[in-house]
Design brief:
The structure holds 2 protein chains of 2 kinds. Chain A is α+β, with helices and mostly antiparallel strands. Chain A is about 30% helix and about 20% strand. Helix content of chain B is about 80%, strand content about 0%. In chain B, helix 6 (about 130-140) packs across helix 9 (about 185-210). The chains are: A alpha+beta, B mainly alpha.
Chain lengths: ~550, ~325
């Protein structure tokens, strides 16, 4: 099934403590999570968990911040959502109806959604629990597309027209075929919002305006301290959510959060994605017998952009030498989250297990990129006319945190062994975001990828000419056509083939250098049932189907 | 005389505040990357950037923005956050009391710990007690507050599965719990300053104790308590008061980390986030407030001199 499109920002990464490296899924559980299918759900109780940062505000159409999208996943709904539960494999994101009961696609550019009858807004002013209608959906997406400065607008820029056909039917007409449309609608930035709230408060930035149709309602928000959510009595899915409430502690310091978890005050591991650092596992395991854990690659990885029009990078042999000289295994070994566990990344992060091509399916020269071999790198350089190596510069930021800088140092050391001397230029985080990220660097720039939760973005945004994030300056007509083709291909199997071909092609031409992704460990208490970790910010969706059985 | 002095100092403070306002306005804008770029990050398209800059008034010349902001400040309006659209005054009103209480208690602890131990150490110079006190002071100066705070939380969790109270209880809900929750963080926050004050008090008091008038006091047969506390300490603590003023400023800057660790919704954490987000009105508002507090604090310190030493006159 396709992937949803939502995103982490680079600043989010910074706030997540510089987790630095990316994730997909190895699939192997450390201590297999208990299957919940055969158990009877229990009603009641309150989930307790931790987030590291307060939301920038509560308007999903005025930010890309995960710190906003995670809280809204408790209180808001979309038309379609990612299925959740212990049976869903991390790294896969099967879609299912949310506020839409069903949908049809009469032609390549038209989607018609039937809304659930009787779905109601939270029983709060100014909406006071009125019924959700097609006009609400139309209002939401029209605001999404027209609000000046909505940073998420690109997600649905293919939408041409939205019509409320009747009270419960809404029709989307696209400008051109876009096979990822449903996935875009399942993004955690496309929440259905209430017109009355926007009108009353001017926008949705205030916590009072946090009004949705989701499983819980925001009862109390104390900036930098906590969220308190209570069960929505009007929720449209019968019997859900199981828990009466959710308490979220906003605790910035990771060490404090670990201590609080050890003291039994959280039900889930404290890091983003319900993850615990492997380096902490020795302290955790003896103190938490029966803890449920699952290996889980959470999504981020290093990427190096190369100025392709410049010498010596014009020569693909030089780019291959750089990749072969990169010791990705050592990067994983030195990382506290992974301690050697993880996966190498092709052009689409390994976290997307359905879309990221396995390394062994790359062509021979592509596979070779992942076999660290300084001698071979030297040979390639000599062949390209650089027998003594060369000097270059790499711009990056220390803002991603110490784990990231460790990875950079390991990478530079690998290059040095092949005779490539890279002078490290560090930029302040804000400066990095406004320059390097957009290709304003001298020779090479290094940052994190894994920022988007849809696989398509890694192709479209990095390789399409004219895209602001095409920092390497890729302009390859064949690649451009392949990317366009996959957007027009509705059969998931056929699209996957094209996406695989693109990754093969990119590996042959080495349009970027990809670091590995860490395999971290998601962990939750034994009394939490039917919980399954996954990529993306949909905490609310995953907790809605889980229950407490103390 | 005192009134004239006060008036003079307040008038002198105006250019200081104006210069400070210029600095706090200009410096954040010298950092590459503005609030709009950080709001949109990698999803920024040129049109969106321009639209949002216009909407937030950031497309105007910098001097126009400065004078517009200054005009607001004079009218008591610190502007509104670029991110949350809440007024800076509203944001500060919620956070300032937390930081003031935390910083105030830390300063109180610093004095309560520093001065008595400093006096004891000076009076019992070169004894075991003095050595212990001096060693403890060096330790207090050397140990970073964030490290100590982390240990205080982590070690009990590892040993006993327990942590001290974290989070925030409002005064209106439970006044006792509200005050109690500040004790541990403020104690940690005040340790370094307490150590500093202790060492200075000891050094100053030792010097005073060698003065002729003190020897005269001893010769008169006065009790130790009277000689030390009545005749010596007052003169010894004048430099301590000066340093205390500086220490208070340091304590407030250290609240950023301690507030984060103990989950206290104060101003420090708010300022840190604002800097990362280039939320100019918030950065300006908080810094201007802090500068004003420091200016007032220094004035208070100067006034305290006369209380401690009547020979000091204001002119």
């Amino acid at each position: 099934m396709d992937q949803p499109a939502s995103s982490l920002t680079r600043r989010d990464m910074l706030k997540l403590g510089g987790a630095a490296l990316a994730a997909g899924t190895t699939g192997a559980g450390l201590l297999a999570a208990q299957p919940a299918a055969a158990q009877t759900p229990k009603r009641g109780g309150t989930f307790r968990l931790r987030l590291a940062v307060s939301p920038v505000h509560f308007d999903p159409q005025q930010t890309v911040a995960f710190s906003t999208m995670v809280p809204l996943s408790f209180s808001h709904s979309r038309l379609v959502k990612v299925k959740a539960g212990s049976s869903v494999k991390p790294g896969t994101t099967p879609l299912e109806p949310d506020l839409a009961e069903s949908w049809t696609q009469p032609n390549d550019t038209t989607y018609v959604f039937k809304l659930r009858r009787g779905a109601r807004w939270h029983p709060k002013p100014p909406v006071n629990g009125r019924e959700v209608t097609a006009e609400d959906v139309k209002y939401t997406y029209e605001r999404f597309l027209t609000l000046p400065g909505n940073p998420n607008r690109g997600l649905l820029e293919q939408v041409d027209k939205i019509e409320a056909v009747d009270k419960y039917t809404v029709k989307f007409t696209l400008k051109e075929p876009f096979a990822w449309f449903l996935d875009a609608l399942a993004s955690t930035s496309t929440w259905i919002i209430a017109k009355e709230a926007v009108e009353q408060y001017g926008d949705l930035k205030r916590p009072e305006a946090c009004i949705g149709t989701g499983p819980w309602m925001l009862e109390r928000y104390e900036p930098n301290v906590r969220f308190t959510w209570v069960r929505n009595p009007n929720y449209f899915l019968p019997g859900l959510p199981h828990a009466d409430g959710v308490d979220i502690a906003l605790e910035t310091d990771p060490s404090t959060a670990l201590a609080v978890w050890l003291a039994g005050r959280y039900d889930f591991a404290p890091e983003y994605g319900m993850v615990v650092r492997r380096s902490d596992l020795d302290a955790v395991k003896p103190r938490k017998p029966g803890l449920q854990m699952q290996d889980y690659i959470v999504g981020f990885g290093g990427i190096t952009w190369i100025k392709l029009e410049q010498e010596p990078f014009k020569d693909v042999r030089v780019r291959r030498a750089l990749a072969i000289a990169t010791n990705w295994k050592e990067v994983l070994e030195t990382n506290a989250w992974s301690q050697g566990h993880g996966a190498p990344n092709p052009a689409i992060p390994a976290a997307f297990r359905d879309w990221s091509i396995p390394i062994d399916q790359l062509p021979a020269e592509g596979r070779r990129l992942y076999e660290h071999d300084p001698r071979e790198a030297k040979r390639l350089l000599a062949e390209a006319g650089y027998p003594s190596g060369f000097k270059t510069t790499l711009e990056t930021t220390a803002g991603y945190g110490p784990d990231w800088m460790d990875a950079v140092q390991v990478t530079l050391a690998g290059w040095k062994k092949a005779g490539i001397e890279a002078d490290l230029k560090l930029k302040e985080y804000g400066a990095f975001v406004s320059t390097t990220l957009f290709g304003k660097f001298d020779k090479m720039g290094g940052g994190l990828f894994g920022l988007w939760a849809d696989p398509e973005s890694y192709l479209y945004r990095y390789f399409m000419p004219g895209q602001p994030l095409n920092a390497s300056g890729v302009n390859d007509p064949k690649l451009t056509e392949m990317i366009r083709l996959q957007r027009r291909t509705f059969s998931a199997a056929k699209r996957r083939e094209i996406v695989y071909d693109i990754q093969r092609y990119v590996a042959q031409h080495v349009y970027g250098l990809y670091g590995p992704s860490v395999s971290a460990v998601a962990a939750w208490e034994p009394y939490v049932k039917n919980f399954g970790p996954n990529i993306g910010h949909d905490y609310g969706g995953r907790l809605m189907v889980a229950w407490l059985d103390r | 005389m005192l009134r004239r002095y006060l008036l003079k100092r307040l008038v002198v403070a105006i250019p200081s505040l104006l210069i400070a306002s210029l600095i706090v306005f200009t410096l954040p804008r010298l950092l590459p990357g503005d609030a709009v770029q950080l709001m949109l990050e990698e999803k920024a398209y040129a049109k969106d950037l321009d639209e949002l800059r216009h909407k937030l008034g950031l497309d105007r010349p910098i001097y126009v923005q400065y004078f517009a902001w200054l005009g607001q400040v004079v009218r008591g309006d610190l502007g509104e956050s670029l991110w949350t659209r809440r007024t800076v005054a509203e944001e500060l009103a919620a956070r300032l009391p937390v930081t003031l209480l935390l910083g105030g208690m830390a300063a109180a602890f610093a004095v309560i710990i520093g001065i008595p131990i400093g006096v004891l150490s000076a009076v019992r110079a070169d004894t075991l007690r003095d050595y212990v006190a001096r060693s403890a002071a060096i330790l207090g100066l050397s140990v970073p507050g964030f490290w100590l705070a982390t240990l205080v939380i982590i070690l009990p969790a590892l040993w006993w599965g327990w942590t001290p109270h974290l989070g925030f209880t409002e005064f209106s809900k439970n006044p006792t719990a509200h005050v109690l929750q500040f004790i541990l963080p403020s104690l940690i926050l005040g340790i370094a300053s307490g150590a500093s004050i202790m060492r200075l008090t000891r050094a100053m008091l030792l010097e005073v104790l060698r003065q002729d008038y003190v020897r005269t006091a001893w010769a008169k047969g006065l009790r130790e308590r009277a000689v030390v506390l009545k005749h010596s300490l007052k003169n010894a603590v004048i430099p301590v008061v000066t340093v205390f003023g500086i220490q208070v400023a340091q304590i407030f800057s250290a609240t950023v980390i301690i507030e984060s660790i103990f989950q206290l919704p104060g101003m420090g954490r708010f300022l840190f986030d604002a800097i990362l987000q280039r939320d100019y009105p918030v950065i300006q508002g908080i810094n201007l407030l802090v500068v004003s507090i420091i200016v007032l604090l220094n004035l208070l310190v100067d006034l305290t001199y006369a209380v401690l030493d009547p020979r000091i006159r204001y002119s």
